[in-house]
Description:
Chain A: Its main location: endoplasmic reticulum. Chain A: It is found in: Endoplasmic reticulum; Golgi apparatus, cis-Golgi network. Chain A: This is Trafficking protein particle complex subunit. Chain A: It comes from Ceratodon purpureus (Fire moss). Chain A: Keywords: Endoplasmic reticulum, ER-Golgi transport, Golgi apparatus, Transport. The structure holds 3 protein chains of 3 kinds. Chain A is α+β, with helices and mostly antiparallel strands. The relative contact order of chain A is 0.18. Chain A contains 3 helices and 5 strands. Chain A starts with 9 loop residues before the first strand and ends with a helix. Chain A has helices at residues 37-57, 113-129, 143-154; strands spanning 10-16, 22-27, 82-84, 89-94, 100-105. Helix content of chain B is 38%, strand content 22%. Chain B has helices at residues 26-49, 92-110, 124-135; strands spanning 2-8, 14-19, 58-64, 69-74, 80-85. In chain B, strands 2-1-5-4-3 form a 5-stranded antiparallel sheet, with helices on both faces. By secondary structure, chain C is an alpha+beta fold. Chain C has one domain: Muramoyl-pentapeptide Carboxypeptidase, domain 2. Chain C has helices at residues 21-39, 42-67, 76-92, 134-146, and strands at residues 97-99, 107-112, 149-157, 166-175. Chains in contact: A-C, B-C. The interface between A and C is medium-sized, with 33 and 30 residues.
Amino acid sequence: MAALAPTSRMRCMYIFNRNGVCLHYHVWMRPHTTLSQQQDQKLMFGLLFSLKSFTAKMDPVGGNKGNLGMPSLPGQGCSFHSFRTNTYKLSFMESPSGIKLILVTDPRMGDLREALRFIYNNIYVEYVVKNPLYTLGQPFKCELFNSTLDQYVKTLQ
Amino acid sequence: MIVCVAVVGHNNNPLYLQSFIDDDNTLKFHYIVHCSLDVIEEKVSNSKRAGVNLNETFLGLLYPTEDYKVYGYMSNTKIKFVLVTTDQDSRDADVRNFFRRLHAAYVDAASNPFHVPGKKITSAVFAERVGNIVKSFGAPAPA
Amino acid sequence: MRASLRPSDPAVSPAIERVNAELFTLTYGAIVRQLLTDYEEIEEVNKQLDTMGYNIGARLIDDFLAKANITKCTDFRETADVIAKVGFKMFLNVTATVANWSADSMECSLILEDNPLVDFVELPETCQGLSYCNILCGVLRGALEMVSMRTEVKFVKDMLRGDDVFEIRMKLLEQMPEEYPYKNDE
């Protein structure tokens, strides 16, 4: 658990790869969880998978109308980027290589697309992908990644 | 006119020798180059003894034989280049320039990952470049 | 593939670092020489270079997507263009041209007139079957696989073997959309 100021709006973050493997789960403030970590991650991945498919299907202007539930290529169709409830906001970003970043924050948080882009470009790529000791497709534990991420989210308030 | 160009390694092992006259007697050139190695050794150790820290790569005229003049050049990695020419009045600047270009060609040939340091240079590209450098030796500098 | 060809905004995309070209060339030459010593058989070395390239490509793709600000990658034609103009420029500082498209747009060639990997290199007689730059084929294959395109990549023209350019033939075998990975419905 990272130490953040009590006024912080960050709750937690997931990083998945295209095969559903949760590469990283980072939690700042999550007082209430009902599922085991594994079930929680599966549920999150499944939700996003279906949401992407759903948003593409329901797109009133978009092109490729695949069948609901059919697999699609990352970036195909419209891209959903966030949803908000009364207690939290979930922001989502997917790279063409299938890496999915999910950030769960306080609902008052603004648009986090730039932030997610920054995390992918400058933190995930720099400290995880470029680390020769990291095996692709496996969950990672990297101190440098964690500390840089914590530093960065502090600036997002 | 240049008659022979040679490259000798730091252990005095011959790396390359090419003669530019139609004479099958390359043995003669091997002999000349070999003798010039002694002269090079002497020049270098002389300058050390005199206390002069000679950083000079160009060693100038090594010794004249009856037909030829022999010039020497040694890189800081102790690779020696020897030039044998029949010209009686080569300009100093020309010879220096020659060695500089030869050194550059050698460096490129040595950078070939398939070249084994200490073994003879078998690169056709190097031979061609040396040929070109020799051909343009002594040509007047472009205006 | 929508890539921003304007200079990337440093606030979001990481700055592109440079390395000395000669250092890169000599390092690669040393790798090939070591592989030749370790494996002895030329075909085996070609395979190893391809495997190494594959592992590099699978990581390089994220770096590339980040630096070039690419959000979509679904069309093979567009992808080939971006590889040639942006990818090669970014990592090798050379531009390739795309040519020889097949009728069904599943195959194309990347033509390279300049290749920093082969500066100073001359293949000796004993290594005539060696595909010296095979690592590039692996890199392309690995990177494309991570964006859901399974491909076959190989050199058809090699300057070290006497041709006038380097020509890499890329063939798209299939596009693999994401499947729901969890088999049991829990």
